[in-house]
Amino acid sequence: xxxxxxxxxxxxxxxxxxxxxxxxxxxxxxxxxxxxxxxxxxxxxxxxxxxxxxxxxxxxxxxxxxxxxxxxxxxxxxxxxxxxxxxxxxxxxxxxxxxxxxxxxxxxxxxxxxxxxxxxxxxxxxxxxxxxxxxxxxxxxxxxxxxxxxxxxxxxxxxxxxxxxx
Length: 166
Hints:
27% of the residues lie in helices and 35% in strands.
């Protein structure tokens, strides 16, 4: 090695280490389950007027949605349950209901399902709910020409067995 080559090699090593550290930090940041971006946010922004129109029409229906998450028994999946009611309080039967649920602390992990109507005119389905805490439940219900959307927060008191934050 020529005399005086230590400085260029040292500078190259420091720059290489900086690049490697930045790549490692980017990988960690990109795989963080608590960091979430709204899916199709640009498409939703472009369709803002139609989204607001849907929300106004949904509010005009006077329907309500009460969402609950029931932890599963040993080895069973949790169940999300939605009770739809008309303005006068009567249950709404015969709707096509879909939900998207997300754990607030891990909002990048969306759970979605089509719900089936139960004998009591509520709608339910199993979901992979493993963590206790605050969940956001987005309900999308369609019956005939009526389209209803609602968002609610649900507190899950107990997780299913084996559920814990990594």
